């Protein structure tokens, strides 16, 4: 069984073809194509990957998680065990996209399947130091997430996609993408 990486769900929702391009350019020097927002995003996760964003023993940082039921695998930024509080760090969150919700829901369902009790989920916006709490996912959200994962597993780069120039100009793979003639804004 191939597990879907939780961290790629948001990109998949943004554009499935970007997952394919990510696979191709994965081994390239990221500085050649990573734009400022992506660099800030990866730095915001470095703090938890280096376990430097909290010193509390109650806070599990960069915990690997998985769900056999959903076929997903990934890492969570921070889980405060006593409080049951799952936190995903983002540098900037002007708005919470559906794909970002899928990521935190996926982490939630992984933790539950692994035997943790999760009572609260939130995003922590590093640039403003704000916690933004979101509703816990229920059975409807579980089914929605499951359906996205099924589409992910069925996706082929040869599938037709409807390109959206407004998305392409904000896509880091735009200069290498054969599905569009747009130029990105970075
Ligand atoms: S440039 Fe457009 S079509 Fe190509 S991967 Fe990015 S969003 Fe998708």
How would you characterize this protein structure?
- The chain starts with a strand and ends in an 18-residue tail after the last helix.
- The protein has helices at 9-14, 16-25, 36-49, 98-113, 139-154, 165-168, and strands at residues 4-5, 59-67, 72-80, 85-90, 120-125, 130-134.
- It has a single domain (4-13, 30-160), classed as Lambda Exonuclease, Chain A (Alpha-Beta Complex).
- The chain has 186 residues and is α/β, with parallel strands linked by helices.
- 35% of the residues lie in helices and 20% in strands.
- Helix 4 (98-113) links the parallel strand 4 (85-90) and strand 5.
- Strands 1, 2, 3, 4, 5 and 6 form a six-stranded mixed β-sheet that branches.
- The structure holds iron/sulfur cluster.
- Iron/sulfur cluster binds at residues 15, 17-18, 21, 163, 167-168, 171, 173-174, 177, 179-180.
Number of helices: 6
Mean pLDDT: 87
Distance between the termini: 37 Å
The first-level CATH class is given as: Alpha Beta
Major sheet details: 6 strands, mixed
What's the order of the H and E elements? EHHHEEEHEEHH
Helix content: 25-40%
